[in-house]
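1st attempt posting a full record on here, be nice pls
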Amino acid sequence: MGNERQRPVAGRGAGGAGRLLACVGLLVTAAGGAAFGAVTAAPATAGASATTHLQLFWSGQGTGGPEIGRASLDGDRAAPLAISRTALGLAVSAGYAYWSHESCGTPSTIGRVTLDGTDVVTAFVQTTLASGWPAGLATSGHDLYWANRDSGSISRFDLDTGGPGQPVVSELGRPVAVAIYAGEIYWADETAGTIGRAALTGGAPDDTLITGLDHPRAIAVGPTGIYWTESAAGVVGHAGPTGTAVQPTFVTGASRPQGIVVADGAVYWANVGTDSIARIDAGGGVPDWTYITDAGLATGSTSFTFAALTVATVGQASTTTVTSSANPSTAGQAVSFTATVAPATGSGTPTGTVQFAVDGADLGSPVLVGAGGTATSVATTSLAPGNHAVTATYSGDDTFTGSAATVTQAVDAASATGYRVASADGGVFDFGGAPFEGSLPGDGVVPARPIVGVASAGSADGYWLVGADGGVYAFGTAAFYGSLPGNGKLVGDVVGLVPTADGHGYWLVGADGTVYQFGDAVSHGSLPSLGVLPSAPVVGMAATPTGAGYWLVDAQGGVYAFGSAAFLGSLPGLGVAVGPAAHDQGTAVVGIAATPTGQGYWLVGADGGVYAFGTARFAGSLPGSHLVPSAPVAGLAPTSTGGGYWLAGADGGVFAFGTAGFAGSATGHLSTPATGISAAPAGAATGPGPAETVPAVTVPAVMVPAADTSNARPSLRPYC
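the predicted structure (as tokens):
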């Protein structure tokens, strides 16, 4: 444990042999220091990533007996720790306070108490190991060091293995204080009036840094130098890290100063004469003599005074996790965050507060940690589209150190709510921002074969319908580029139409996997051309954003990739049996849709099951929502951002998931079953369209937030 900066007193004469011994130590765990009270300042406890919970500790005497007083560096007092014997030296490390007791001149022991006060061990280091009267204490890593006043040595004890105690430095006079800093151990020798230094590895003293002191009582060392107290002279001294530039009267007028410590840019010391703890900036200035008053500093017999002082990072380590009420969310959606604080090890219930912040700016005021260790932020609707760093910072309390956690909140842009549903007779039903541009019944046209799909053109105001015979019907700004009957081709069932990115062409796909291209659509192959017979009828097709590739899907969830389209997985490849493979047409796959980036795709089943592959986001499904559609699902249409999607049932029911907005359904308005759904491109005009546009009043769709995918397989998020 490294002690903080403490300044050596300028050499002054040895003066005063036979002066009464005043044993007063100040301990701060974070810098290196100790002596009849060490001063150290320990680094933050591992895992306590937020607040460093520093406390001052001093040897005290309460109404119930010996104790270790405690206060924050702000001066706020905490409950003292009851101990069995008055502390002469103090050190705090890893959840324990160690003390040497007051049996001057006789073999003694070193005690230990947990920082929650529940376990007090009077003789943690046995008498035989601590012979020679242990005075000042210090810790470094897993080792405890102490000054043996009577034997003129410094010893080390392994806190992990339990010893035995090993001499580190010998042949000293009467060392009363020790401090550790930067791999070296420092000590104050009261009879020699010196401050010395040696390597932590031990051996004979190799450096006497400061001489001519008057019975130095305590020592602390840090980046700004060495500090010590001289009780009889009433001064605090300071010198540079190597003992140069000695200031013997860094502070004057102190009342029997004893323990000293450096922490957080300040020097603290115990004034036994006024029962107080004073403070001064590490660089000097005017002391705050009443930093802590009525400290209850321990006093011993007429021959001895005890006021060890230290400062340490204390508290049981905590861990904090933070979750979002909706992640991802949509711009404008109310989102709150919940932090859960728990002990990193062991048991207990943290109290205190949690401060939430978004991208570094506080979100509301600190929130009290309640039962179960949780705290929930205020809700916010102001998150802009994009990713946001949300941090929950736990303050810590008298038992637990602070900690923090961060979650990335993804916010999608609000998707256009427009979509259109097509029925087998060519009826078109537009909702939200999707404008109505016509339908076959409205034009008095009866298709030769049932309509099997609808696809929106590149602009907001156009769409195509496609029949099972390959007939294509263009509306609005969608241009007609050809059809199979128009080309004199008679084929089996066509199952869908997919437009090119610019809307200047389209592909048709047949149940046997044959692909037909029109306009600027380019062929990248088909199943018959490869001699591949699908294991079940092909039911859908989706293209990459550039049109350089496409996927086909069959009723069993088999996926076939062509051109630049990447194969990202299939249901048979994952051992998932649906449709014909499961002898259950109610679960058969009925369609496929690509993500806006082309790096993922969704499959949808007749039961409303949704399967997400690659980067496709699983936002929910009907089975996962414990819903059974009243008619088989006919298709899936994603939003323009991929943050959600709509499902359409054969009865015209529409179900919205994720960021997809519900704008109505066609239930009760169909003459023939619905066979497809298509999203209106971003920028579609708003307001109801003419003719067959149906107001959103029937069978409300179920809005389902993004589902829990904790049971998801790699690349696949099962629908239930």
